[in-house]
């Protein structure tokens, strides 16, 4: 197994502050969907919608890191950013305004400009023959739209390929769902999860580039004794934490929590699995952490669980009880792999039917851009 690859931002626009700690001696494997190419005539034509945003910038970074083949790439954002220059792989690109005509001759479009933009332009793109990989929640639960984590359910998008003259929509799951299922799925395959309890510790990056800038600014302000600027979350974020900022529903859950519940059932194709979640925003810059409690139908002991997780693609184990060293958001920032640790038998359950684990994953990378680019690789 190779070490964690160190990612760098591809040049691009100014990106907000990001932790880039390396994990010495940590393990990962070459991605199962790796392709070695880049700018080539035979590659697909690409469009990145929302290219100036946190996820959009990461799309470019991941395309570069994975040498994704393409013959052309269109950089799309709102009117506000149109005309901006952007350097990618040594070439200059001008950001264009997203319009109804943006998708003529685009094979694959990576969308991350929010749900309303996806709803408006996604179907238009599909009509013009484009395969849309959408990062918003607009189509995730729509029947017939595959909701895909490549390591978990690649079969859901079977038959969708570039070059067949047909557009399609594929949805990228919510970041917390992706990171959770990367670790929970291999265990689920072995012993069948009956119930899952998830508690999240979510980073600023999940709320976009402006939220990351605000956390940084607030941190300075609080340290300088000034009142913090509260535009994005309407409250102090630095040196604080609070319930996830998504809308609270009549059942008392917020939307982020219900995404974990519903998306898990769709991705696992299991309408019976019981999932409950509590989602919390913590003042971390760019990677999410999640505590996951699992209840199984069939017994699974700690050691077997550890062996299963060791072999799972896209996962790295950090589980050193002696030195109290377990996954942290900082260590996985800018990394592809999701880290898992605190692997232990749940003492509240009889026998080997319960397990607790703790996971950390870079939510802009595996939680968004990387997962979408892996999906795009499967279209080739
Ligand atoms: N952050 C995440 O981790 C994450 C994870 C999964 C999914 N997503 C999804 O991706 C979306 C973007 O997230 P983000 O974190 O990258 O947000 P962000 O940093 O705020 O970026 C938003 C992007 O959308 C573009 N945009 C806004 N209005 C537009 C319009 N009318 N037409 C065309 N482009 C427009 C912005 O362009 P301008 O520069 O022109 O404003 C910018 O490029 C989210 O709304 C969410 O649906 C995000």
UniProtKB/TrEMBL annotation:
Q: Kindly list the biological process annotations in GO that this record carries.
A: diaminopimelate biosynthetic process; isoleucine biosynthetic process; lysine biosynthetic process via diaminopimelate; methionine biosynthetic process; threonine biosynthetic process
- The UniProt entry annotates the active site at 175, 288
Name the residue ranges with Basic residues bias: 1-11
Under Enzyme Commission nomenclature, its number is 1.2.1.11
Domain annotation Semialdehyde dehydrogenase NAD-binding: ranges = 45-160
> Where in this protein does the record put region Disordered?
1-31
Record field: transmembrane:
none
Q: MF terms per GO, please? A: aspartate-semialdehyde dehydrogenase activity; NAD binding; NADP binding; protein dimerization activity
Keywords, comma-separated and alphabetical: Amino-acid biosynthesis, Diaminopimelate biosynthesis, Lysine biosynthesis, Methionine biosynthesis, NADP, Oxidoreductase, Threonine biosynthesis
Q: Which CDD domains match?
A: ASADH_C_bac_euk_like, VcASADH2_like_N
- Name the chemical reaction catalysed here: L-aspartate 4-semialdehyde + phosphate + NADP(+) = 4-phospho-L-aspartate + NADPH + H(+)
Describe which pathway this protein belongs to, using the record's wording: Amino-acid biosynthesis; L-threonine biosynthesis; L-threonine from L-aspartate: step 2/5; Amino-acid biosynthesis; L-methionine biosynthesis via de novo pathway; L-homoserine from L-aspartate: step 2/3
* Top-rank EC class of the record's enzyme: oxidoreductase
Q: Could you describe the subunit structure of this protein?
A: Homodimer.
What is stated as this protein's family in its record? Belongs to the aspartate-semialdehyde dehydrogenase family.
Write down what this protein is called. aspartate-semialdehyde dehydrogenase
**What is the native source organism of this protein?**
Prunus persica (Peach)
